[in-house]
Structure formats: C-alpha cells, structure tokens
Request: fold
Amino acid sequence: MTQQLDHGTASDKLRPDLKLIADQLDSHCTLLDVGCADGTLLQWLFKHKNIDGRGIELEVANVQSCVEKGLFVVQGDADTDLNDYGDDSFDYVVLSRTLQAVHRPRDVLSNLLRIGNKAVVTIPNFGFWRVRLSLALSGRMPMTSHLSKMWYETDNIHFCTIRDMFELIALDGYHLERFVPVSQSGKPLTHGPRRSNLLASQALFIISK
Reply:
C-alpha cells in the first residue's frame, strides 16, 4: 500500500534541535524515530527528504496525532519495546532528547545500534554553565529553556552531561562519527568536548558500532 501522508499540516520550519537532526540525514534513507512525539520530524523528513520513516511513541494522544497525519507510528516504550525490532532494520535510528528520560539508557543505546546502522542521539546537557550556576546559587534543581519543568514534573530521571556521553560511548566501544554541541539559542558550536560540556546547552551525537 502506498503511504498517503497529509502534507497540509507539515511545517516548513522545525524546532532548531529537530532541524539539526534533519540536516544530518541522507535523503531516501530508512529511519526509526524513537519517542517521535506528534510526528513533526517524521512528517518534515517525508515531505522534504523523501525519507521512509517509522516511529514509536509512548503517549497515546501523540500516536493518534501521528496516525491522523498518515504516519507509520506505533505505541511503545523505548525501555521495553525496541526488542520487537530486528537487527539492522533501518539506516538511522533517532532518539531526540529522550535518553535521559528512559530507565535503562545504556540498554536503550545498545538497542538503537542493533536496530540501525547509525544512531542519532540528542541530549540536554546538564553540565551547561547556566545549570551549574543555578544549582550553586539557588540550591534548587535548575530550570532553563531546555529544562523547563519543575523537578517533580520532569520526565528526566538520568541526568547526563556531554562528558558522560563521551565516556559511555568509549566504554561500550562505539564509534562517534559526529559530535555537534549547540548553544542555548540553537546555534551549533565549534568547541571540543571539554569546553562544550560547559558552554553547550544540548548536543547531537551520531554513533555507529
């Protein structure tokens, strides 16, 4: 059956972190978006890069929104349901600002690289200087534009920095193909890992086995 995707609601403008992901992907590739939310990225990629995308999303309302747009998205949990996907099923697997919210990040990352040839992972950087300063001065869990919920409402359960990600990638023997630190305004930075751990509010990693 030919995919009939609703182009009417597809935006030509993406959130900066999603646009950064989109810029890394090859046209006409296959992709699984884990934690795809309302399908904004999947819809944009289909319209603008002719990418054959699938999605898995925990929230039922988001799944319904994706289906209404004509997207191939199923309800599922990254911690438990990635085992349903076969080895090397996709060119890319995307995990956008979700790794810190799963119960077993290391296992999830392993599954991403089992399912896809490459994993594109973005994280909010809890080592960002504003986060450090806020915690030091207020003595309370920080809030920024990318960490915008109170501690008792946030989905984040594993607080990860850029340095933590580099160490995990090295520990499990993965290959880091690309690292892009991003400023609070959404601008890519050119700093290395050490300075980025202080100056970047989030970061993108492209990882392979």
